[in-house]
């Protein structure tokens, strides 16, 4: 039982087959091959518009390259205070932008809000030339809390950003899970709501190593090819990245796999609820954050059950846990089977039974 991350999942067999097929022949280098052209065409169809597409192999590169296109070295990139792009990318956006500053904005359930952004921008410490200039806002989709921005929320944030001249980026490492959860079109969740650049994640959803910078604003496309090359992220054999993306995009496989992951997270959440265990955040995509009694946590870890212990300042008061509880971050992937969820829930039941058995017969229950 390993629910630490969707990164532990294997590559989908369709991806491996596509890699084998593209390996069988020769092709033009540096993204000038027919498979890369196919991916560009598929993404234009999925988003219902012309897009700029730049393939890379890591989400960090995708985020950092996109944000560097949007932000001058003296700019500020605003993100949720617990966003992955702010905390877990070792300063890559700052590095690739040649010094732009990441600024954290708190928000409940892992989300920033239009009102929160408006209030931050209204503060008096953005005075030039002594302060950084707000230049971009980035939204994690799904968020670090496993929650999902709806198109209306995105549009409201984008309107505030647009009024102040900020560009809007979306970190879509789990974009597929978000689209599957809400049931809207990719276009509605991105450019129609005001998003100008998307880091489209494939790796967590069946690829071996494939991500895409998808640009909806024509001016952002200019010179990103050079920025990618200068940053060391242009593959000479780019067809091997493209083959992975094409395999997932064809026939809607990317959404099918995301639905599978989300369904197992929903199954897990229902099982936890049936056992009287609370979740720290609404379960909307493929992540579940469960409040576990410390004794249950210790028993699960003793059995080798895999998950991360989490902490967050964005938990709504009515979802807060007790002093003797830990938060377990549980992530489902397309490869997570129902039996694995049931085994995890059974392990929780066993941990509870073990705790009861450890009490002496005369020990009060409360």
TrEMBL record:
Residues 3-292 form the Aromatic amino acid beta-eliminating lyase/threonine aldolase domain. Its EC number is 4.1.2.48. It catalyses: L-allo-threonine = acetaldehyde + glycine; L-threonine = acetaldehyde + glycine. Its cofactor is pyridoxal 5'-phosphate. InterPro entries: ArAA_b-elim_lyase/Thr_aldolase, Low_specificity_L-TA_bact, PyrdxlP-dep_Trfase, PyrdxlP-dep_Trfase_major, PyrdxlP-dep_Trfase_small. GO terms for molecular function: threonine aldolase activity. Keywords: Lyase, Pyridoxal phosphate. One of its GO terms (biological process) is L-threonine catabolic process. It comes from the Bacteria. It is an enzyme of class 4 (lyase). Catalyzes the cleavage of L-allo-threonine and L-threonine to glycine and acetaldehyde. Homotetramer. Belongs to the threonine aldolase family. This is L-threonine aldolase. It comes from Hansschlegelia plantiphila. The lineage of its organism: Bacteria, Pseudomonadati, Pseudomonadota, Alphaproteobacteria, Hyphomicrobiales.
């Amino acid at each position: 039982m390993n629910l630490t991350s969707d990164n532990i999942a294997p590559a989908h067999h369709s991806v491996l087959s596509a890699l084998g097929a593209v390996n069988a022949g020769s092709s033009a280098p540096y993204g000038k091959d027919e498979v890369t052209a196919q991916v560009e065409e598929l993404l234009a169809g999925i988003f219902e518009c012309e897009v700029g597409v730049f393939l890379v192999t890591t989400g960090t590169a995708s985020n950092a390259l996109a944000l560097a296109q949007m932000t001058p070295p003296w700019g500020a990139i605003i993100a949720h205070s617990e966003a992955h792009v702010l905390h877990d990318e070792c300063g890559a956006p700052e590095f690739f932008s040649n010094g732009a500053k990441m600024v954290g904005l708190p928000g409940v359930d892992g989300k920033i809000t239009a009102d929160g952004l408006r209030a931050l921008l209204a503060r008096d410490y953005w005075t030039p030339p002594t302060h950084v200039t707000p230049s971009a806002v980035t939204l994690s989709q799904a968020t670090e809390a496993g929650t999902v921005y709806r198109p209306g929320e995105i549009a409201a944030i984008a309107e505030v950003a647009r009024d102040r001249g900020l560009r809007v980026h979306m970190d879509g490492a789990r974009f597929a899970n978000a689209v599957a959860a809400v049931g809207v079109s990719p276009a509605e969740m991105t450019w129609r709501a005001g998003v100008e650049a998307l880091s489209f994640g494939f790796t967590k959803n069946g690829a071996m190593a494939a991500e895409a910078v998808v640009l909806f604003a024509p001016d952002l496309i200019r010179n990103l090819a050079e920025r990618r090359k200068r940053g060391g992220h242009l593959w000479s054999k780019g067809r091997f990245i493209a083959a992975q993306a094409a395999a997932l995009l064809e026939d809607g496989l990317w959404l099918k796999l995301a639905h599978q992951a989300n369904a197992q997270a929903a199954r897990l959440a229902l099982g936890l609820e049936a056992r009287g265990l609370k979740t720290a955040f609404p379960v909307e995509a493929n992540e579940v954050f469960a409040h576990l009694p410390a004794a249950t946590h210790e028993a699960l870890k003793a059995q080798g059950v895999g998950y991360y212990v989490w902490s967050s300042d964005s938990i709504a008061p009515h979802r807060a846990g007790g002093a003797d509880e830990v938060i377990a971050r549980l992530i489902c992937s397309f490869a997570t089977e129902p039996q694995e969820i049931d085994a995890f829930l059974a392990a929780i039941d066993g941990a509870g039974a073990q705790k009861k058995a450890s009490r002496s017969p005369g020990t009060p229950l409360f």
